[in-house]
């Protein structure tokens, strides 16, 4: 009986998280209350407070559970070795964009990250969330250094600046796609987006 009770509690907790993600994405984090989430989940307010003592703790828990994003992308990669880091980089971008465009939950999460949240207080910052779920600066730095050492991009590439440019390029595309998805077929055009970025990388100075 104890195991069943624990299992049910975990199921209830996950249900609340799922409902919160959808409401945060649609209504915004600041305008969504714990009472709104409880009502949408078909639960009492006491039930949600038993699992989360504040909206901030619920918000942060959402991102604590998203660490599988990078693992999901790695499983989709055709290039499993680092023989050609530039090709690996291209595949990472393509699979990431395809995953974002076809996975409803990832779309909701990115809607929260880029359009539905005013970050403050003890909430995870946008940078922390970004690093956690899809754009890790240290991993990108390592990959670009490997590209330089193998002569795949210019030796005088400013890595820190290039990472900022790459992030601006990709996040700008995702933000605009979220606002007007009819203007860009992110799934079909992912290779073209990646190839344009690679042209810039190969010519960087």
Output the helix-strand order. HHHHHHHHHHH
Report the end-to-end length measured between terminal Cα atoms. 65 Å
Write down how many β-strands occur, each being a DSSP E stretch of 2 or more residues: 0
Major sheet: none
Poorly predicted runs: none
Strand content: under 5%
SSE-based structural type:
mainly alpha
Distinct helical segment count: 11
Q: Would you tell me the overall average pLDDT? A: 88
Overall outline: elongated
The proportion of residues forming helix, as a percent range, comes to over 70%
Task: Describe this entry's structure for a reader.
- There is one protein chain.
- This protein is mostly helical and 205 residues long.
- It has helices at residues 2-27, 34-41, 45-51, 55-64, 69-76, 85-102, 104-115, 126-133, 137-149, 159-179, 186-202.
- Helix 1 (2-27) packs across helix 2 (34-41), helix 2 (34-41) packs across helix 3 (45-51) and helix 6 crosses helix 7 (104-115).
- The longest helix is centred in the N-terminal third of the chain and has 26 residues, at 2-27.
């Amino acid at each position: 009986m104890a195991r069943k009770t624990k299992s049910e509690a975990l199921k209830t907790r996950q249900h609340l998280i799922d409902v919160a993600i959808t409401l945060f994405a649609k209504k915004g984090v600041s305008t969504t209350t714990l009472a709104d989430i409880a009502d949408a989940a078909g639960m009492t307010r006491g039930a949600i407070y038993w699992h989360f003592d504040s909206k901030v703790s619920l918000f942060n828990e959402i991102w604590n559970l998203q660490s599988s994003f990078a693992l999901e992308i790695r499983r989709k990669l055709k290039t499993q070795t680092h023989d050609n880091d530039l090709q690996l980089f291209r595949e990472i971008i393509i699979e990431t964009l395809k995953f974002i465009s076809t996975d409803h939950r990832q779309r909701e999460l990115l809607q929260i990250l880029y359009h539905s949240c005013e970050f403050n207080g003890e909430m995870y910052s946008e940078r922390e969330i970004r690093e956690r779920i899809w754009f890790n600066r240290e991993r990108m730095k390592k990959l670009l250094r490997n590209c330089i050492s193998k002569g795949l991009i210019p030796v005088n590439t400013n890595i820190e600046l290039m990472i900022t440019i790459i992030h601006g390029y990709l996040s700008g595309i995702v933000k605009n796609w979220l606002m007007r998805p009819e203007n860009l077929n992110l799934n079909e055009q992912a290779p073209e987006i990646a190839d344009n970025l690679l042209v810039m990388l190969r010519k960087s100075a």
